């Protein structure tokens, strides 16, 4: 079973709407949790990073939250744009060996 | 700065053929990584090099070899390709191995490999 599970697998929204993507993880202990954006045919690019003691981190219209007690994180996208169409990947770094565990991603499509 | 570059972008191989995927970074990073990305799965670490002159196995090393040629370059070799190695391969680099808030991995554009 994957140690990082993301939902939904895919999502379609209209331009200008908000959306929230979910990440549940079992990695423990962990040192930080990142959200990456991956455009089609490109490598992932970091959006946010939170340590285990942080609850929220923003990057423009992207806001990530972390609840270390329930082992859940979310990425909220405000006022979506066509350029937000991409896969969003949740990544948890293991505390003991620095290995990163990647979720399978949520494929977001923003339609005009 | 080009960041992390990978060649080739696409490759088709027949079962049993060999090939080397090339990766280079111009950020003077110490650590470099090779991942594979398969549909419905997260990226998985194949091998990494924490610093020049060292290499270590990751989560899925079987069927692969790597060479840290110098600080800039890290290559991945498939000695005898198998259909199970059909995947998208990403190279990444970071200033150091420890993944902290101030140290992130930068990814290349990927190589799409198909093994028939």
3D architecture notes:
The complex is a heterodimer of chains A (112) and B (116). Chain A is mainly beta. Chain A contains no helices and eleven strands. Chain A is 0% helix and 59% strand. Chain B has 116 residues and is mainly β. In chain B, 0% of the residues lie in helices and 47% in strands. Chain B is built from no helices and eleven strands. Chain B is globular. The relative contact order of chain B is 0.33. The chains are: A mainly beta (112), B mainly beta (116).
From the structure above, extract its key features:
heterodimer, A: 112 residues, mainly beta, six-stranded mixed β-sheet, five-stranded antiparallel β-sheet, B: 116 residues, seven-stranded mixed β-sheet, four-stranded antiparallel β-sheet
Q: Give the N-terminus to C-terminus distance of chain B in angstroms.
A: 36 Å
Oligomer: heterodimer
Shape of chain B: globular
Number of strands of chain B: 11
Give the termini separation of chain A: 37 Å
Proportion of residues in helical segments of chain B: under 10%
Return the structural class of chain B: mainly beta
Largest sheet of chain B: 7 strands, mixed
Number of beta strands of chain A: 11
Which bin fits the share of residues in helices of chain A? under 10%
Mean of residue pLDDT of chain A? 94
Question: What is the count of DSSP helices of chain A, taking H or I runs of 4+ residues?
Answer: 0
Most residues in contact, chain pair and counts: A-B, 24 and 22 residues
Shape of chain A: globular
Largest sheet of chain A: 6 strands, mixed
Helix-strand category of chain A: mainly beta
**Beta-strand proportion of chain B:** over 45%
